[in-house]
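Weekly structure sync, notes
Attendees: PL (lead), two postdocs, one rotation student
Agenda item 3: pending single-chain targets
PL asked that the sequence for the first pending target be pasted directly into the notes so everyone works from the same version. It is reproduced below exactly as submitted, 64 residues in total.
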Amino acid sequence: MLKTTTFALMHFSIAFSLAYLITGSLVIGGLLALIEPMVNTLGYVLHERLWARFGHEDSAMAQR
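Predicted structure, written out during the meeting:
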């Protein structure tokens, strides 16, 4: 759990830093640091579902 927490903090920090550097806005940097991981998580779930349905047979066999 500690590794997951530190990774999340790193991810938020990078997203905030890049957004702040690009826009110069603390508000936009903060919003992007919160919104981007949520959207990424939803994208990951969608990707996994599509991969399970249309992915390679080799990957399905490897999971068994």
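Discussion points:
- The first helix runs from residue 2 to 23.
- The chain has a mean pLDDT of 86.
Action: rotation student to compare against the earlier draft before next sync.
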